[in-house]
């Protein structure tokens, strides 16, 4: 059988997607050489962005797999090299080309990314679990999704997503690790061990600003921000840094929880943001006999929705009620979000229903300039 042509080899490599940059390696200047000898043995030289790239194994496997699929290929040898400083800066310029001016790309007028800041009145209501599951559900539908773990003191997103890898740096650009097709950045990826982060407002603001400017997310359909509980500095920073962000409020059914959650949502009035909806978590527990038990009371989500609608003077929808489910907690503990690991479970079904609503929400025009002026 004839050895494959150079064009066929390149076409095969064009199907290999860089795991961090989510673009074909051929477009990223990562293919230095590829050639086949008469016996069908292929040699591919691939340039990594940095030495010791944590994804070298994934890239090598991807290249080998893509080339082995070609007719006439009998073996593949992958050699890894590292980009020169010049090549890295060209790559950075290429990636930044879609966002020429320095700043937060999500604020560009042309940006169509929907931004949801997930807030809660108090801790432990499941805000982070809801965030990662909604993100994974939307990514599984084919949307391009990112998460900024802005819960700076209590970061938990990397664990819930099963990410242990640290972000790769290309000069001053930071490439976020990807898990379950979602790009994730968290302060937890920059601290060693389980050290507490003792930062005050201005430092938090700068950290968040850096995440939003220097982290290369590329074009996203949806960006989630997992906020710390309550109405602290981070919520205000998010409103300032991302004025288009809409607030998703997570609460439990308990009346007292709804009271505190109302404050987290009502911040929208001061910041001029929209409230995208309310999610009630831990709504009930299904017992082995099939009956349900309302462990934390009932009605909190509905009450919160009604009160927030009055406060923000717009209809706020109760997007869904998620039951208590051991599988949800277990999935979180091992980094396997329930919407992917156990999609048939009742909690996953509720989360998938909410994701569906978010996926089809029309872009709101409230508060946005329509570019027309009255005569
Ligand atoms: N519906 C649910 N069923 C069972 N366990 C749940 C459910 N929702 C959340 N949990 C569990 O509750 C705990 C707290 O959840 P999570 O960390 O998502 O809350 P949080 O509001 O983000 O907390 P914090 O604000 O303190 O970070 C986790 O162990 C999680 O697995």
From TrEMBL:
Source organism, top-level taxon:
Bacteria
Q: What InterPro entries would the database entry show?
A: FSCA_dom_sf, MIP18-like, Mrp/NBP35_ATP-bd, NUBPL-like, P-loop_NTPase, YlxH/NBP35
Q: Which GO terms describe its biological process?
A: iron-sulfur cluster assembly
Query: What keywords would UniProt list here?
Result: ATP-binding, Hydrolase, Iron, Iron-sulfur, Metal-binding, Nucleotide-binding
- Pfam families found in the cross-reference section: FeS_assembly_P, ParA
User: Any idea where the MIP18 family-like domain is?
Assistant: 8-78
Q: Which CDD domains match?
A: Mrp_NBP35
The record ties this protein, via SUPFAM superfamilies, to: Fe-S cluster assembly (FSCA) domain-like (SSF117916), P-loop containing nucleoside triphosphate hydrolases (SSF52540)
Report the sequence similarity comment from the record: Belongs to the Mrp/NBP35 ATP-binding proteins family.
HAMAP family in alphabetical order? Mrp_NBP35 (MF_02040)
- Subunit structure, per the record? Homodimer.
Q: What is this protein called?
A: Iron-sulfur cluster carrier protein
Organism of origin: Arthrobacter alpinus
Q: What is the lineage of its organism?
A: Bacteria, Bacillati, Actinomycetota, Actinomycetes, Micrococcales
